[in-house]
Each structure stands twice: as C-alpha cells, then as structure tokens.
Amino acid sequence: INSSHYSIQTVGVIPSALPSFHFPSWNWNLVIQLLPSAFMIAMISFIESLAIAQATALKKRDDLNSNQELIALGLANIAAGINSGFAVSGSLSRTVVNADAGAKTPMAGVLSSILMIVVSLYFTGFFQNLPLAVLAATIVVSIWKLITLSPFIETWRYSKADGLAMWATFIGVTCIDITTGLIIGIILTFVLLLWRVSRPHIAVIGLVEGTQHFRNISHYKVITSPDIISFRVDENLSFLNAHVLKGYIITQVSQNPQLQHVVINCSSISNIDLSALEMLEEINIELSLLNIQLHLSEVKSPVMEKLIKSALIKELSGQVFLTHYQAIQQLSESSATKK
C-alpha cells in the first residue's frame, strides 16, 4: 500500500528497540515547575483508569479494589519514569479488547505485556503497512459494546442533578476529549455537592402514637405539643448550611408563641464544624431571650466531643438527652407540672 498515492494512512515505521533504563536527574526547580501539571495528570489518570476498571468490572460482575488499582498505577508510572516513558493510565480500548478476548485473571495482562515486548523487538515490520482504519475499526467495535444509554436515562429520572453531571461529562468526553470531559464532570459534581450540602433537609417531627419513633409531621399522623417543637437535621452541619438551620428554627418559633422548648434531634448529624457550633450558640442566645430552652438529643460521639470543647455545652439553656423519646417525655412532664 502506497499511502502517498492512495491517500491511505498506514501505521508506518515502528522503532524496534526498547528505551534505555536510567533514573532522571533530580532538579528542585524543575520539580516545583512541573508539580501542578503532574498533580493534574495523576488525578485525571487515576479517575480515568478507575472509571474504565469500574465499567469492565460491572460488565464482568467482578469486584473492584480501588486501592489496588492506585498502587498498580503508581508502580507503572515509576517504571515509566525510569525508561523515558509517557505517563501511564488505563486504556479504554485496550481494556475492552483484552476483556473481549476472554481475559479472566491479571495473568492476561502479564502475557499481553510480554507479547508486546516481543512484537516491539522482532515483529514491528509486519505492521508497517497496516492501515490505521483497520486499527480504528477494531477499537470502535470493541468499545461499542460498553456504550449503554439506559444508565443516563435512569440517573436523570432519579436525580436531575446527578443526571446533569453525568450528561455533561459524557458530552465533554465525546465532543472535546477525555481529560476535559473528566475535569468538567469533577467540577460540576463538586459544585452540585456544595449546593446539596447548603440546602439540608430539615423536618419538624412528632411522636408516632403507640411507639417511641418520631417522623415528619408533613408525612405522618403524629402527636405534637404546643409547648415543644422538635427538629431533625438530615445533614452534617457546616458553614455552608448552619444559617439555613437558624433561619428555619426562628421561622417556626415565630409562628408559635406558646413554645417553651426547642429540641434538635442530632441522630443524622455525624460531623459539625466551628461555624455551625457558633451558629448553634447564636440560636441558643436568641431563644433564651424569648424564654425558650434549646435542647439536643441523640448526639453522636464525634459531634459530642466537639460540643464539649465548645462554649455551647456550658451556655446551653436546656439539656442534652440520650434519646429523643426521653427528651419529649421529660419536657412534657415538666411543662405539665408548671401548668
């Protein structure tokens, strides 16, 4: 095949030798200069490789160890660094071809590597006149089996936010390139995560009759008291959402002039930062000015450790209860006694 005459691009001459092994020279100025780019390459390579591994594992119904993948990727890049190789990452096309060929164990990768070395040393001449279109067709046919639109549709139906991130990543990878698409997906997912955290689900809860369980008053028939209002926060508290909790509590309190107690059920809170602690202190002060006591219930150990270190526990107008049921029982009896 004469590519210059028939306009058919071929693989061309392939060097039939392996690069020499040597350790790169260590230069701190060069390290500092390349570190930001190296970090981005490492992050994108790992995410891309993990995505490929997950897709293949799902197809083969195998378990995936992400730590093992990271270690393998690191060792491969160390080996590439001492023989003048490019940065190593998972290859979608080669992974699919390997899987479709019947690979079952990691030994398939070892044998494939050995075969590649032998071919690179002694048989590169056989591929010199191979049209690139043949290679492209092989890759396209192999990858086509991995393309399924059902997860995109199901994700969009389940969550518009997750669907948006998924479609944006897919379009970025398809229309631009893999790196840009993954960066778009990472940034968009991070933004959506911040958006979700900043909009925590807060419910006013009441006691389900005949039980010790509490549920959202909007969805269940529950028992409530005009003297006591209970809130459940279904999110960790941080500077992103603490102001939302304060605004919600103040709004609910302002609608009930008979309130004497506010109880926050902390069963769904696993972490709390300094800004959220300060916001709880502000809530405690504002409620105290209205002669309303603030109580906490079902506080988890990691959160309790931080509460003890803060000024909130010392200044808390109410109590910290082990269970929410205990809180409602004691506060109800206390309110009845005062009446």
From TrEMBL:
Q: Where are the transmembrane segments?
A: 30-58, 70-88, 108-125, 132-153, 165-195
| InterPro entries per the UniProt record, alphabetical | SLC26A/SulP_dom, SLC26A/SulP_fam, STAS_dom, STAS_dom_sf
Main localization category: membrane
Its domain of life reads: Bacteria
Q: Which UniProt keywords apply?
A: Membrane, Transmembrane, Transmembrane helix
According to its UniProt entry, one GO biological process term is:
transmembrane transport
**According to its UniProt record, where is this protein located?**
Membrane
In this chain the STAS domain maps to: 218-331
| GO terms for cellular component | membrane
Cross-referenced Gene3D superfamilies: STAS domain
Q: Which CDD domains match?
A: STAS_SulP_like_sulfate_transporter
Q: Report how it sits in the membrane.
A: Multi-pass membrane protein
Q: Identify this protein by name.
A: STAS domain protein
Organism expressing this protein natively: Acinetobacter haemolyticus ATCC 19194
